[in-house]
Every structure is written in structure tokens, then in C-alpha cells.
Design brief:
331 residues; alpha+beta; DNA polymerase, domain 1; 6-stranded antiparallel sheet; 6 strands; 51% helix; HHH_MUS81
């Protein structure tokens, strides 16, 4: 029990309010710790590496024993301050920041089978749930980088109800989100200048998802489809388009060097409508260096028809197949 020191009504009210706020923030630490425990449990159930599972368990213990609310640390020191906590690295610091900003953790959403492209787009301040649905239905895109490309090349203008002013706002929101994401990913390498507000920038013409080669992404795609077809992957019950709550969606956790990937078939309305739920594969990267998302599909048109391609990186795929003609290029 907390003792109230003052005898003045106004001061007592302030003290009570302060105690209430502190209690709420302390509970927030515990709430985030519980979500990290759930991530660890789901990763273990889905066959992720023991080291990755243990990282989330240790981070949960840190938050449970932390005397200072993580929200206060984030407000004063940013992601850099979170990374300085014991057992909290880049990746988990980014998840904590996402929770404090969005009220949820996208990684947990997808491990539960709940994440959709529409929900992802709706996290942008310039896009609500209705507009997110129209964008997804009209353009058949799945990722923020694909949305960025659509805003740059004019396709976004085809979405009913979108004018130039709104498109400009979407581009600004995307630039800010991508800049924020890649600045956070390099936080541990920052010095005290980061505390003074320094941040890296992302080119408006080319947000940086190109660190990973299309060869690697296509290799993860191939591994996922092969193991899924052999029935060797854990299956989850996605929340959407699954009235019987059947565990049908295979999920893969794998690694390439120090890069962690999660792969699963697309469970969107459009994928069900076009009967491509066993063709479109969503790849996620979640590790200390980056958080990205790609869609791999079988191309239906042009010189890459019949080949597996990474949407938005078609030219790189073409160059890849030119230099690797003996590779597994088809679905």
C-alpha cells in the first residue's frame, strides 16, 4: 500500500493520480512480458530454434523484474534505451516499441495466424480500415514496400476515393514508417548522438529491402513449399476465412546465416478468391538487423511466366534466372 503524504485535497488528488499512473505503467510491463512469453511458446510449438525461443523467455523475465516502466524508457531514451536493458536486443526492443506505438505486436499476430495485409496497411495514420480494404482488393498487394511502389508508380491513383492529397499523405506516412524502422534496426550501433535525435534516412526512391538477395528469398520459398507439401510443418488455425477453426496453414521458421525467416501461405480474401492459397507465400524477416516482409508468387505473365518471383523485385528475379538457368525456377 502506498502512503499519501499530503493533507491538502488538491495535493492528495495529484498524489493519487500519480500512484494510479505508476501502477498502470507497471502493469504494462507485465502485459508485454506475457506477450513475449506467448511468442516464445508459439515459436517453440512451431519448431523455431531453441536459442530464439530462449531469447524471448529471458526478455520476459527482464520486464517482469524491471522497476522502471518501459514506456518511460522509450520516451526518454528511445529504442537505444530499450536495447541497453539486460537480454533486450534489437529485435525484441523493436517489438516492445511496436506494442507501445500500436497496442499490439505484429509478430505475435502472425504466429497466431491473425495478421492480414489490410491490418498492416491500417497501422498507417493516413489509412483507415475501409481504405486499407479497398487498396488490398484493388491492387492485390501485401506489404508496405509494395504499397510504396504503388504510390510511386501511379497505381494507387486507381483506388476509388483516393486523390493526390491523400496519396501524398500515404507516401509521407510510409516514408516515416520505413525511416523509423531502419533507424531502429541500427540503434545499437549508434552513439550518444542517437540520444540527441539522430536518425538514419531512407531514400524516397528506394526503401531498403534489397539487403537480402532474391536468390535467398526464393530459396526460403522453395524450402517452405517443399516441406509443406511433405506434411512436415506445424500447422496453425488462422483467424480469418476459417470458420471451422481448422489448423490448415503450415508455418516455417528457418535461418540463413544470422537472418531469421518465417514463411506461410497467404490467407487473404484475394488469395481465396483466386484459389492461390497454395501458391502465394508470405515471407517475414524478424531478427536483430531487420524486420521485412515479401510476397513470392508464380508469375502469370511475360518473360517470367511460370517462374517463382518476389513481387516488386521482378527485374532482379529476371537477372537471377538468367544467371542461374539450372535452378528451380518454376512452381
Amino acid at each position: 500500500m502506498v502512503a499519501i503524504q499530503s493533507h491538502q485535497p488538491d495535493e492528495i488528488a495529484c498524489e493519487i493520480e500519480s500512484v494510479s499512473e505508476s501502477s498502470h505503467l507497471a502493469l504494462e510491463n507485465q502485459a508485454i512480458a506475457e506477450l513475449l512469453d506467448e511468442i516464445a511458446n508459439l515459436l517453440a510449438e512451431q519448431g523455431a530454434g531453441e536459442f530464439r525461443v530462449r531469447a524471448y523467455q529471458n526478455a520476459s523475465k527482464t520486464l517482469r523484474s524491471l522497476a522502471t516502466p518501459v514506456r518511460n524508457i522509450m520516451l526518454h531514451d528511445g529504442v537505444v534505451g530499450l536495447i541497453e536493458l539486460p537480454t533486450i536486443g534489437h529485435s525484441i526492443a523493436n517489438l516492445i516499441e511496436q506494442y507501445l506505438r500500436l497496442g499490439r505486436i505484429p509478430l505475435l499476430d502472425r504466429l497466431r495466424g491473425e495478421e492480414t495485409a489490410e491490418r498492416l496497411f491500417a497501422t498507417l495514420p493516413s489509412i483507415g480500415s475501409e481504405l486499407a480494404h479497398r487498396i488490398h482488393e484493388e491492387l492485390e498487394i501485401e506489404t508496405l514496400l509494395e504499397l510504396w511502389a504503388a504510390a510511386k508508380d501511379g497505381r494507387l491513383e486507381k483506388v476509388p476515393g483516393l486523390g493526390r492529397k491523400r496519396i501524398r499523405a500515404i507516401r509521407e506516412s510510409l516514408a516515416d514508417r520505413l525511416r523509423h524502422r531502419h533507424s531502429a534496426d541500427t540503434a545499437a550501433d549508434s552513439t550518444r548522438s542517437a540520444r540527441a535525435g539522430y536518425s538514419n534516412t531512407v531514400s524516397e526512391d528506394r526503401p531498403s529491402d534489397h539487403e537480402v538477395s532474391v536468390a535467398e528469398l526464393l530459396d526460403v520459398d522453395e524450402e517452405y513449399r517443399r516441406l509443406a507439401s511433405q506434411g512436415k510443418l506445424t500447422k496453425i488455425a488462422p483467424r480469418h476465412f476459417n470458420p471451422g477453426a481448422v489448423a490448415w496453414l503450415p508455418i516455417l521458421h528457418c535461418q540463413r546465416a544470422d537472418r531469421h525467416y518465417t514463411a506461410m501461405y497467404s490467407n487473404t480474401a484475394r488469395a481465396h478468391e483466386l484459389n492461390t492459397t497454395k501458391d502465394w507465400v508470405i515471407l517475414y524477416r524478424d531478427d536483430p538487423k531487420s524486420h521485412d516482409r515479401w510476397t513470392v508468387i508464380t508469375s502469370q505473365f511475360g518473360k517470367l511466366r511460370g517462374c517463382r518471383i518476389v513481387r516488386g523485385r521482378e527485374e532482379e528475379c529476371w537477372q537471377h534466372y538468367r544467371h542461374h538457368p539450372s535452378g528451380d525456377t518454376h512452381a
